[in-house]
Description:
The chain is of the alpha+beta class. Helix content is about 40%, strand content about 20%. The chain has two domains: about 1-30; about 30-115, no CATH class. The protein has helices at about 5-20, 70-85, 90-105; strands spanning about 35-40, 45-50, 55-60.
Amino acid sequence: MHTSYAERERVSTHARWLGGVQYTELEIEVEGIFKSMLLLKKKKYAALVLEENGKVHRETKGLDLVRRDWCPASKQLGNKVLDFILSDISRTAMGMANRERENEQVRGSRTYSHWHCRR
């Protein structure tokens, strides 16, 4: 696995060169270096972008959760789901965390009254 930004950049440059050798009419452009990505369709994705200084930030494009006309609860829930999907947490640990959260809700130790949407 390529861990450093410089190594990832080197690999992407090499892949771009290989594509140009095999397909002379194809032009490949590197838009960014992503740590992880959820690609739903063309121009609809969520990704963790790795910056040159080592910082990581989330970028979302074309997803419904970024629409302004949606209620805060749907935006919060969508963001939490994306955080889970893009995280480094194993799927097993993620399932265990979800089960624990569900158990807390059943026991009544956590309420989501602030998540109600207004019509």
